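Q: Is it fine to ask for two folds in a single conversation?
A: Yes, each is treated on its own. Send the first.
Q: Here.
A: Result:
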Amino acid sequence: MSTKLDTLKNALQQVLGQKIKTLTEELGEITVVIGASDYLSVMQELRDHPSTRFEQLLDLCGVDYSSYGDGAWNGDRFAVVVHLLSITHNWRLRIRTFATDEDLPVLPSVCPIWSSANWYEREAFDLFGILFEGHDDLRRLLTDYGFIGHPFRKDFPVSGYVEMRYDPEQKRVIYQPVTIEPRENVPRIIREENYGIK
């Protein structure tokens, strides 16, 4: 007797075939890794094929693998991870796709397939710098429009590059370079002459 996950695996292998780079089952979930060149066509197939019918995109996020596994990772740096749900078949799927260019990570937008991807792709662009080709309105979502860099990248400085504050003289918000002065934390010791003696 085959389980639900076995049925899903067979459907994925039938629908996607050689486009699957790896297919793993762990903790009751299936993760499929596909190539960047197949990303859009695979997503379209997963939604439209009667054997899969993933009607909903639940989540899409960026991932920076630069120091994954304590630096043992030697694959591409940036990935997009998508979680899909099939209401028809009552199953879920995780798709991972790596952007091939570390300096300018680009993947096609899946907004024409699932409109719910809109803000998720904007968030991945804002926080990781992953560009989504074909996205109608790819602009920052969580950081300010003048923000420099992408704060979820592992090489982003912890303190950032600039700080924002309100200047009462100019009566507006201004940006200035971060100024962090080194300081020493020395524990303060209080000594009393007759401590504990009555």
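Q: Second one now.
A: Result:
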Amino acid sequence: MTVDPSSPKNGKLLLSFVSRWQESLKWRIACAYGGVIMVLGLVVIGVAYQSMSQALRSRFDQQDYATATNLSDVAAGYMAVQQNFGLHAYVTKYARLDGVAYAFIEDRAGEVVAHSLRSFPVELVQTLSPGERRQTGRVALQYQGQSVYETRVPILEGQLGVVHLGVWAEFAEREIRRVIVPVIALIATITFAGVVLSLFLAHRIVRPIRELTDAAGKISTGDLETPIALHFRDEVGELARSLERMRTSLKTAIWRLSRAG
């Protein structure tokens, strides 16, 4: 059985079907644009998070090393004249810096000569080889049930002892999040705006096609009086002009047939 598109009933069905198809086309375009933007946004967020995290951790490591080095330079002067009381006060001062969990100094025999703690815990006791005492090091430890990053710096290349500076890992992670979260939020906001823009662009792309489909549906139902007024310079505009020429030709042909009859 053939379908007569000139039938009003079939024309309405055709118009309804094409409208639903156009609506799905709109969402396909929106999903395509939005999907690409979402993927790019997630990639940018991942790369930004990794690169910024590494850069900030490196910066904190350098800051801890600089603090421990300053303490080592001060400790060298006190230990050279064996003024451990003044050294203890200076170590306590350094331990009051933001994020510092503790600070203590070992002499070359491995004895703790100054520390910032009320009582020195056994969990911080370390046995270092002569080679380790002459080298800068950084290790992750557990202190009071929490993670600590400890930086070791030798005093006069290990001849007088070693400085130990512990920084709370949670403090470093919190500072990293404080810097990264606003940047990630900004990227996420831009990504969301891009998805919304893709919906808007999809609507702008599909709207003239929908108008042409409506016009074609009217022509198929016999309505030849409504002109097609779409003024675009692209392929959609060319299609609109072709439909307008077809409408005009059909109207003229019908008028001639009616005059001939």
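Q: Anything structural to flag on that second result?
A: Two points. The helical segments are 8-80, 84-95, 130-133, 169-220, 235-260. The CA atoms of residues 228 and 244 lie 6 Å apart.
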